[in-house]
Amino acid sequence: MTLRIGSVTNSSVRLLFADQLGPHFDDGGQILIPEVLSPLRARRYHRQKAHLILSALRHRAQELGGRAELVRGDSYHEVLAGRGLSVVNPTSRGLRSLVADLGKTADVEVLAARGFAATEAEFADWSKTQGSKRLLMENFYRDRRVKTGVLMNTTTTGELDPEGGKFNFDHENRQPPPKGQLTLGVASAWFPVEDEIDQEVRLYLDQLEADGTVSFIGNDGPRLFPATRQEALLALDNFVSNRLATFGAHEDAAMKQDWAMSHSLLSPAMNLGLLDPMEVVQAAERAYRAGGIELASAEGFIRQVMGWRDWVWHLYWHLGDRFDTANYFQHEKPLPEAFQELDPELLKSSCLQQVIGEIRDRGWTHHINRLMVLGSFGVQRELSPQALNDWFIDAFVDGTPWVMPANVIGMSQYADGGLTATKPYTSGGAYVNKMTDYCKGCQFSPTVRVGERACHFSAGYWNFLDKNKDALKANYRMAQPLAGLGRLGDLAEIRSQEVDRNQF
Fold first, then answer.
1. What integer pLDDT is reported at residue 8 of this predicted model?
2. What is the DSSP letter of 293?
3. How many helices (H) and strands (E) does the chain have?
4. What pTM value is reported for the model?
């Protein structure tokens, strides 16, 4: 059964998927917006992720009024088959395959992908200039800076130089949490106020869950992220006006009582297509040039958006399906129940309790928790990189099929053997203790490797290096850490302890 709201009768209309809801996907004609059940049945999404997606779809249909038709049904094939459509090329292989199938029974016009700082053609042209060299995000980012003129200045000779004399100020953005503070003490992020559409979505999801149609993870809660273009612009303005100035210095730190810190919280809005990344970049640059914001903060944020965000999307296409089976260390263990159910009560360590609790309550935690807590735990505990990748997609409100492979399988788990990152991003408890306030009061100690108080990161880090030293010995960035193995007097005890360790 298909339910149609509105009436679009043109032979060819613009199809909008859930990540194409901003004005840069709308060329002014008739619009078709599908809302289907199959993705919710196929996976266990976070409840707040499902809510955000449905709320955004329904809000967009309401905004467009008579120009739009919201079509609800079981599957995309059910509601779209046989219709003449125009579609901006989707962001994932699954949806591109769907579009190809639709084109077998009707006229489907596929337009170039949008919503990224560089087009697929521009990335392809850049990658050709690299020849046989390893593709590096930093080189791509610098090329985009030059091509777009972002944070660039014209010299008297007509050349372009980066603002501040260099492209990257990352070394200035690695400060630990400020001492003596429980929070950064910065202005609050902008949060939306729910409306009637949100209440309708909540009742709808309640019913789906009650009758067993779908199963969610995580807690329901007030919607925290933009579901409309207007809300997204308010969130963007709040960030660049009140929080960008304090973003950089502590962007790699984490604090128990300050889950958002100075992070923008804009990734869900960008991934829904409510904001174009270049307008986000340009807003940050304008705020910097207006004064009062350190270059390191502005550049660090801009690098995340037009550098890393674009990079992981282009790698998703450039590497094709290699992420699907990449498993450099041959890790195959299933995710712990605490992860699968988002239940921090099943955990004992303070850092994992904190991070899993944040995901349970909001469907979001910032990048250092994703990489250096969850990701580091995953690679040390030999979790299946593909299972971890799928969990990240389902559990995070900003998780998408294109976002996570390079982030999780590549950078976090090093399962691609170094195509994405130049080394495994994992560490001992000393790093967590330095960059967070999570360790205080934990029953495990970051300075203890063996025994009942042994930190699972401090022991796990050395055990991981020991087990994989042959696989890592050719990596020059791992030479110093691997040399440290020879100075450990308790390595044999660590090996024995970590074989069957299940207390985290």
1. 53
2. S
3. 24, 8
4. 0.95
